[in-house]
């Protein structure tokens, strides 16, 4: 197998063999460097074998020079001729447990499917691959390019499918999936309030839902997750991934503007920009519009249960444009706009617009946490990032924090 590890794009051994360790986990076991031609000294491959050992923790290291096998000693300092590879100690049966490698293999499969679709005349920008690599299978495995099936631990495969879809969507599709730093910040902003129903009405790959679901499952909080997505292929891929989740997930292919939202305790969403709803809608403040930016927020707040929390990633014209001034005044008078975190260009994928992470609680107005982040916005929004922590302290008063014995 020729792996391509996302974090190590330059690391590509000729052959990487996997085998089970004593726990039954499939781990990198042997590396083989293949050389043909005039290579006089097999020892010249030792540095790349040693690099494989350092990066992958492999056990056995081989060079095949013009068809002749050599095996490196334990320290990968010398080579001696052998008849062929030594069988692994615990055999080849085991389960892959490496998230990154599983994701990388799935992304390769998706590109392979996409290139087949392109060859048959489908534009990949318009359509996701059929997604066979992400489809549900009875057994938990990844199909390799040579047709072999690599068994994968089920929870690793579930996480890898999500990550592969998000990565593929962010590289290959005209619809953008959210930046990972935004996704994790959104999940952190709602974490303390997760319960009951969690909704993303413009869910795309489902990245926001999965991020919240991970934290919810870890905290063993009972909750269900609902997503709407207008792109049928994306909706069906996200729905397929939802089936494998440890908590109930429903993803519907739907035009959110024409759908009555399920009542939700938590809403997290990055609505599409500059779209129009099918009809003019009457907003909570009594005004009428078909402007998708405001209709998306308004429909969400309407569906939010009393005491619930919504986090929106919206373009900053929502919080600055005169167009929305009277609606903003209405929001400030009727809801608790808990936090506004301004973000520079680049934080909202697929657009040059600056953006805002807007946290709104459905309760009486109170003070708002306001921050404008600069170029280091990704660091600021990391789990220990200063801006995220300051926002969390502000919007989750100590008395209501989970883990402190409070409700
Ligand atoms: C900014 S993306 C959401 C990204 C998402 N957070 C993710 O990481 O994949 C907006 C999504 O809304 C979807 N969308 C656009 N119009 C929609 C509509 N009327 N109803 C439901 N989904 C819609 C798009 O197909 C796109 O996937």
Explain the overall architecture.
This protein is α/β, with parallel strands linked by helices. It folds into 3 domains: 15-93, no CATH class; 97-172, no CATH class; 180-400, 3-Layer(aba) Sandwich (Rossmann fold). Helix content is 31%, strand content 26%. The chain contains 11 helices and 18 strands. It has helices at 46-56, 99-119, 154-172, 180-190, 207-218, 232-243, 292-303, 317-320, 325-334, 377-380, 386-395; strands at 15-20, 25-35, 60-65, 68-72, 79-82, 95-96, 141-143, 149-151, 196-200, 223-229, 249-253, 264-269, 276-282, 288-291, 304-315, 336-343, 355-361, 369-372. An 8-stranded mixed beta sheet has the order 11-10-9-12-15-17-16-18, sandwiched between helices. Helix 2 crosses helix 3 and helix 4 (180-190) crosses helix 5. The N and C termini lie far apart (51 Å). The site of S-adenosylmethionine (SAM) has 20 residues, from helix 5 and strand 10.
Listed once per kind, the bound small molecules are: S-adenosylmethionine
Overall domain count: 3
Describe the biggest sheet? 8 strands, mixed
* Count, helices: 11
Overall CATH class of the largest domain: Alpha Beta
Widest sheet: strand ordering: 11-10-9-12-15-17-16-18
Helix content: 25-40%
Average pLDDT level:
88
Q: Structural class from helices and strands?
A: alpha/beta
Question: Which fold name is given in CATH as the topology of the largest domain?
Answer: Rossmann fold
If classified by CATH, what would the architecture of the largest domain be?
3-Layer(aba) Sandwich
């Amino acid at each position: 197998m020729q792996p391509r590890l996302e974090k190590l794009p330059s690391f590509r051994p000729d052959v990487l063999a996997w085998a089970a360790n004593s726990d039954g986990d499939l781990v990198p076991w042997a590396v083989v460097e293949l050389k043909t031609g005039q290579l006089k000294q097999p020892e010249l491959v030792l540095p790349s074998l040693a690099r494989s050992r350092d990066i992958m923790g492999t056990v056995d290291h081989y060079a095949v020079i013009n068809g002749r096998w050599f095996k490196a000693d334990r320290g990968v300092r010398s080579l001696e001729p052998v008849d062929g590879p030594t069988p692994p100690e615990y055999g080849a049966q085991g389960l892959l447990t490496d998230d990154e490698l599983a994701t990388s293999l799935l992304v390769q499969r998706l590109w392979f499917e996409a290139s087949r679709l392109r060859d048959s005349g489908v534009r990949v920008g318009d359509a996701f691959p059929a997604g066979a690599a992400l489809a549900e299978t009875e057994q938990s495995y990844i199909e390799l390019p040579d047709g072999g099936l690599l068994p994968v631990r089920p929870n690793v495969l579930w996480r890898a499918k999500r990550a592969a879809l998000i990565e593929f969507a962010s590289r290959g599709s005209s619809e953008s999936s959210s930046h990972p730093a935004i996704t994790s910040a959104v999940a952190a902003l709602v974490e303390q309030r997760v319960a009951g129903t969690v909704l993303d009405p413009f869910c795309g790959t489902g990245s926001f839902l999965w991020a919240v679901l991970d934290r919810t499952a870890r905290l063993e909080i009972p909750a269900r997750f609902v997503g709407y997505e207008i792109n049928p292929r994306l909706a069906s891929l996200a729905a397929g991934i939802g089936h494998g989740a440890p908590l109930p997930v429903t993803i519907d292919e739907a035009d959110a503007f024409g759908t009555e939202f399920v009542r939700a305790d938590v809403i997290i969403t990055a609505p599409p920009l500059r779209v129009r709803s099918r009809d003019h809608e009457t907003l909570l403040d009594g005004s009428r519009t078909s402007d998708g930016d405001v209709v998306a927020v308004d429909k969400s707040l309407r569906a939010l249960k009393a005491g619930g929390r919504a986090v929106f990633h919206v373009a900053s014209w929502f919080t600055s444009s005169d167009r929305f001034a009277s609606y903003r005044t209405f929001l400030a008078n009727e809801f608790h706009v808990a936090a506004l975190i301004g973000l520079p260009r680049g934080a909202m994928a697929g657009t040059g617009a600056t953006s805002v992470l807007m946290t709104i609680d459905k309760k009486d107005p109170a003070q708002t946490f306001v921050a404008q982040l600069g170029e280091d916005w990704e660091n600021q929004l990391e789990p220990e990032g200063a801006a995220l922590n300051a926002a969390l302290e502000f919007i989750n008063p100590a008395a209501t924090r989970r883990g402190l014995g409070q409700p």
